[in-house]
Amino acid sequence: MASTTPSDRGAARPYFFFSYAHMPRIDASVGDPNLWVGKLFQRLCEHIINLTQVPPEAAGYMDRELRIGDNWPEALSSNLSACRVFVPLYSPRYFESEHCGKEWAAFLGRAQGQSAPKTVIPALWTPMRQLTLPAAAEDIQFNHADIHPRYAEEGFYGIIKLSKYRRQYEEATLALANRIIEVAESTPMPERAIADYRTVPSAFDHSIPERPVTLTVVAPDLQHLPEGRTPYHYGWTAREWDPYRDHNGSRPLADCAAELARARGFRPEVGSLDEHLDSLAAEEPQSPGVMLVDPWATTKDTCKEALRSIDRPDRQWITVVVPWNRGDRQLLAHEPRLRGCLTEALGGKLAEPASAPDVPTLDAFRIALPEALNKASQQFFKYAPAYPPEGEKVDKPRLMGPEE
């Protein structure tokens, strides 16, 4: 991150950046799972607009407003660079989210000697008693009861949906908005350019898991889409591929996979096929690996050729997961051809019991990935070379009887 001088748009800097953990969609028939979080954000913005002279577009920023075709990492980084106050919405999912941890760390990286915790104003989605705070959050001293006693007891989720708490909800949102305004106008965080917030280590890394695993995203980016494929599920890099976009709040599948891996004690290394090809094709296993394969990627001859070097029976420590979103009409319309391309590239791996060649939903993916991780890890320990300690061989100790 490189420091910058305040820009001419300083007056239009967002008063607050609203950081929250995206809630996955439970069912295709259910509406936006983040609807109530969005309502909370809008209410805070309404208060700020009415209590200040800030333009409506600069009251606050929430990433759910991004639209198709937007470069969302650039937009997030830009707003993290300029926002005056950071408002994390505390929930159990929040502190498990790598994205939220990176947003938090990127914002605090702008401190330049200032007491940064003053510009972090947490909000409670769930009560504090339900949360285990990482060290980064423990440094934030904030009395939620000062906002409202009922809110401190129940969190916003506990009062936003019940009409009997309507008054308490309005009082709590107004008090929180006033606190944001106070800090934003008296001691705002200095502006500082953040080129790409995703490159910042998460602030929520409590410890480093001991078990490494390679998560390889085999998917095109927007500049290399196969002919006939729309850009809806893709981003500027392979890692931004989002096959279940309608059901996960526009969140890359790789990020979901990395969180699932960390929750099970793995240390994931996420990258594209180009980045991981050498280690995946190595004669000796480097680490257990799971490949997340977009069927459209296998229509490219260069991708097929690369995958064939991995499609061997002596690669049991590498498993394959193929998302096959049944709601993706374009995918289903080309299913016979895509199935054929997949078989050409990875027919052997797809036939292995450890593979998951047809994962129809995000919920199914959350079940399939941990199984693939465990199977890959088991095979890694079976095939990985053993390196005994140096020195002379020492016989195993044995218990001796009383007469020996």
UniProtKB/TrEMBL annotation:
SUPFAM superfamilies: Toll/Interleukin receptor TIR domain. It comes from the Bacteria. Signal peptide: none annotated. InterPro entries: FxsC_C (IPR026367), FxsC_N (IPR047603), TIR_dom (IPR000157), Toll_tir_struct_dom_sf (IPR035897). It holds the Pfam family TIR_2. Residues 34-147 form the TIR domain. This is TIR domain-containing protein.
